[in-house]
Amino acid sequence: MIVPTGILLAVVIGYPVVSAVIMSFQKDAGLDKATGLFVAGGFAGLANYSHWFLQQCTTAAGTGPCPPGNIGAVFWESIGNTLFFTVVTVILETVIGVWMAIIMNRNFRGRALVRAAILVPWAIPTAVTAKLWYFIFDYNGILNHVLGTNIIWTAGEWSSRFAIVIADTWKTTPFMALLILAGLQLIPEEVYEAASMDGASTVQRFFRITLPLVRPALMVAVLFRVLDALRMYDLPAILTGGGGGTGNATTTLSILVVQQIRQGFNSASALSTITFLLVFLVAFVFVRFFGANVVQTQAAQQKGELK
Amino acid sequence: MSVAVDRPRSAARGASSDRTETKVRVRRHRGPKTRTAIQAVVIAIWCLLPFYWMIVTAFRDVGFTFSTDPWPSHVTLDNFRTAFSTELGNHLGRALLNSLFIGVVVTAVGLLVGTTAAYALARLDFKGKSVIAGAILAASMFPGVALITPLFQLFTNLGWIGEYQALILPSISFVLPLTVYTLTSFFREMPWDLEEAARIDGCTRVQAFRRIILPLAAPAVFTTAILAFISSWNEYLISSQLSSDVTQPVTVAIAGFQGSVPHQEPYTAIMAAGTIVTIPLVILVLIFQRRIVAGLTAGGVKG
């Protein structure tokens, strides 16, 4: 029964990944100077990878530093941007998400309304979110008006980065909050009552009870968000076009791959393979060292161990 | 006072009488309660304000695009007309149909294939089960860009660029892990004893599944369908590279919206288009709120 899923995933994910890895070791097809014929590139060794890591380009004259304007030079900047977005958005989303979840876990009138409200940003497609915030961030837009500032949000170096952080935090914090809320609801109220009777303060209760007990749910939520942030494309692509500052302040790895596709499939394959390895490395680190074991969490919850 | 009414797990916690007393005692202090209410209002405003601004702008006259009036002044429906007019090279109407078509096909295939896989993962014991479960989970964490280069080349060779199948096939790969995981965790909680009883009474495995489990699973399958459809409706990366003017979905259409004045963002028309694209989704989400939260947390926290 698992076979159809297996076949479909193999065709749509397995095949592309294997062929991306193969392509990443090949030269781009081009004209052979000696014969004037269009030939397939052949084996390239690590040339496509050194293009990114060392900014070494292969030209007719051989291998040397890439000419100015080559997008290979954007590699380290885009790695930096991607990691910056990942770290900053995930920290913000975790902190705000925990806060939202704690509030929503309390009983108050209109609780259902707040829970409905936080689903709204989640339900809006990212492309629409990006356009909406593009409008809000316009120089003449409402944000500058409310803040009384004249910030060029989508073009400055750091302002464009923070524009993306703000829009992403708005869009995805609700998802975080929902996952954390689900974890909070598994904590029996008796634990809090016992702690209150023993004289634990609100802060103590948060750090000694809430945080450790909600940790499995929290780690899974953080892992999901980190992996989403590492592959971020829609939001920066539409909101800033990857631009800002001197032109690449918001270029993420995914945006760089798409830009490179137009210039050569095989270098793009090398870059997408790098992105994919980075994502898996981070996932591995999370599962191995931070205990975000998704499968185990699932199994444990099934057995009722986490309740 | 409405207490713990909409709390899904409150029943599981039980309600001992002395705890109710504690609760009442705590609630006499008005301070913390007011603070909670204020924070709740802040959360609601933070979530809804940008969305509200989109709707208000959608109804504004173009001349008042940057109006800071919090109410919809100079109301007009022109923006909706502009959004649907094809004269400027926008294809919103067509794009809506495309997204709907792609979403339905992706959801249908994802559910059909995903349900069987989820059933197998939840119910059957076989060799390599955890490896397969892990592989499907890993697939859901896959960066879309890792697929796009080879797919671009493959679809170029097949002549599929700009065709619907070039958008549907990759989208299925994103939706499938989601459906498998959400359904697996739903299936685990089903009363399988009933199915076994039916089999003892002489039903075959397939019959028992069809007659007992499938009707019970219908709400879970429906929830998964909504999640799958929303996921497909949101897809942008692959579509932005592999679609043509004719097949582009709404996300791509909105990102590339043209105005009547060159090089000027037609904000009001974009906000109108954004409203059209978003409102059905928001209504759907609000109606099935409880189920969607259950589905999200089933696929997220548990798997």
UniProtKB/TrEMBL annotation, chain B:
Record-annotated membrane-spanning stretches: 37-55, 100-122, 134-155, 167-187, 208-230, 267-288
Gene3D superfamilies assigned: MetI-like
Pfam families recorded: BPD_transp_1
Keywords on record: Cell membrane, Membrane, Transmembrane, Transmembrane helix, Transport
Subcellular location: Cell membrane
Primary location: membrane
Superkingdom, taxonomy of origin: Bacteria
Topology with respect to the bilayer: Multi-pass membrane protein
Region entry Disordered, spans: 1-29
CDD domains the UniProt entry points to: TM_PBP2
Keyword Cytoplasm set for record: no
Domain (ABC transmembrane type-1) ranges: 96-288
Family according to the record: Belongs to the binding-protein-dependent transport system permease family.
Protein name (Swiss-Prot/TrEMBL): Carbohydrate ABC transporter permease
Biological classification of the source: Bacteria, Bacillati, Actinomycetota, Actinomycetes, Micrococcales
